[in-house]
């Protein structure tokens, strides 16, 4: 048994699926990886990483920063995990990120690695504090605007592609009708000339 679906229904199904996948990807886009397993520690981790900005891309939170593209923020996330395992609360960690953790954190493996690799600026930032600039205050207008513009452009391109794909069929039909009427006109002229 064959099921025939009109092109309009097929296009609507495709657009609906596309919209669903965009919606679900947006819903999960804000998550970040953590090695923590305790649900309370994971909540604390998400709370802290929502409030601290990314070092490489200041317009986003460290929670949204990719492990692959930003190694400094990835290591800072590991440092935050270590602080949570040590029993510090989200407010304490954020406050210490602003005002500094002190010389005691030099023994933390992440900070020791910063120092070993010559990244003194990051190590000093954690030890002495980054100041209030470390807090996430992203201007989401441009991010939201660019996402909306990209989505609109994508939908427009899909619409134009589908419209163009169905347009040649209509042009062929009207072209053959025009050709037959032209032939009829020519034949009438020839008859009158005889």
UniProtKB/TrEMBL annotation:
InterPro entries: CcmH/CycL/Ccl2/NrfF_N, CcmH/CycL/NrfF/Ccl2_sf. GO terms for molecular function: metal ion binding. Coiled coil: none annotated. The chain crosses the membrane at residues 141-162. Residues 20-112 form the CcmH/CycL/Ccl2/NrfF N-terminal domain. Residues 1-29 form the signal peptide. It comes from the Bacteria. Keywords: Heme, Iron, Membrane, Metal-binding, Signal, Transmembrane, Transmembrane helix. The keyword Glycoprotein does not apply. Belongs to the CcmH/CycL/Ccl2/NrfF family. Possible subunit of a heme lyase. This is Cytochrome c-type biogenesis protein. It comes from Leptospira dzoumogneensis.
